[in-house]
Amino acid sequence: GEDVEQSLFLSVREGDSSVINCTYTDSSSTYLYWYKQEPGAGLQLLTYIFSNMDMKQDQRLTVLLNKKDKHLSLRIADTQTGDSAIYFCAENPNTGNQFYFGTGTSLTVIP
Amino acid sequence: NAGVTQTPKFRILKIGQSMTLQCTQDMNHNYMYWYRQDPGMGLKLIYYSVGAGITDKGEVPNGYNVSRSTTEDFPLRLELAAPSQTSVYFCASRPQSGNTIYFGEGSWLTVV
Questions:
Q1: CA A92-A97-A99 angle, 5° bins
Q2: Min CA distance, A35 vs chain B (Å)?
Q3: CA–CA dist A76, B24 (Å, integer)
Q4: Nearest Cβ partner of B103 from A30, A43, A102?
C-alpha cells in the first residue's frame, strides 16, 4: 500500500496555532484529506484539498499542499481544548477504490 | 440521520471463537470498507466492496471474511479469533461519484 506519514504527537497551548504535517507518496492522488477522530468516536471529515490547489482555508483551518515535496499540512488557528483529538491525513490515488491513511497525530491542547 | 451504523460497539472474544461485526449504511453508497485501527499504526484496510456481490482484499485481509449481498450491509466475519485481532474496527462507505468516505462509530474488539 501507499505510505502516508505523520508525527504521532503534538502539544500546543490554548490560543496558539497548531500545525500538523503529513507526507504522502503517490503523486497521482487527486484529493488529499484531513480527518478528525475524537475519543471513542469514528473519523469525521474536516476538510480536503484538490491536487491542483496550493492552499485551502476554511474558518480556523488552513490546508497547505506542496506537491513537489508531497507534503500536506493542516494549520488550526486559535487552537481550543475542543480541538484535542487525533488528526489523520489520507490520500486517494487516482481517485480509485482505496484510501490510505497516515498513523494519525494526537493533538493535545493545554489550557 | 443514521449514516453508517456498526454493531456491536464493544466485544470481548476468547481465542478461537468466531463473530461477525455488522455494518449497515442508509445512504445508498456503492462503496463500503472495513478498516482496523491499531495504536501508532493508523488505519489499515481489511476488505472493501464496490457494490453488491463484489468484494476485494485490502492490505490486511488474513483472518477475516466479508460478504456484500445487499447495497446496505457489509458484515465482517472473524473466524478463529486471535489476540492479534484485538483492535478497533471501522466500517465506512462512499458514494460512487463522491470523493469522501463516511465512517461508522467503531467497534472495539478484544481477544483474550
A1: 35
A2: 10
A3: 33
A4: A43
Q: Collapsing DSSP states into helix, strand and coil, what is residue B54?
A: strand
A45 in contact with B, Cβ within 8 Å? yes
d(CA B62, CA B87) in angstroms, rounded, equals: 14
Residues A91 and A83: beta-carbon distance below 8 Å: no
Confidence of residue A95 (pLDDT cuts 50, 70, 90): low
Interface of B with A (CB under 8 A): 4, 31, 33, 35, 40-45, 48, 50, 56, 58-59, 90, 92, 99-106
Q: Amino acid identity, residue A53?
A: M
The answer to whether A66 touches B19, Cβ cutoff 8 Å, is no
Minimal CA separation from A50 to chain B, in Å: 10
Cell reading at B30: 456503492
Q: pLDDT tens digit string along B47-106?
A: 999 999 999 999 999 999 999 999 999 999 999 999 999 999 999 999 988 778 899 999
Contact of B65 with A106, CB cutoff 8 Å: no
User: What residues of B are in contact with residue A101 (Cβ under 8 Å)?
Assistant: 35, 42-43
Neighbours of A84 (CB within 10 A): 17
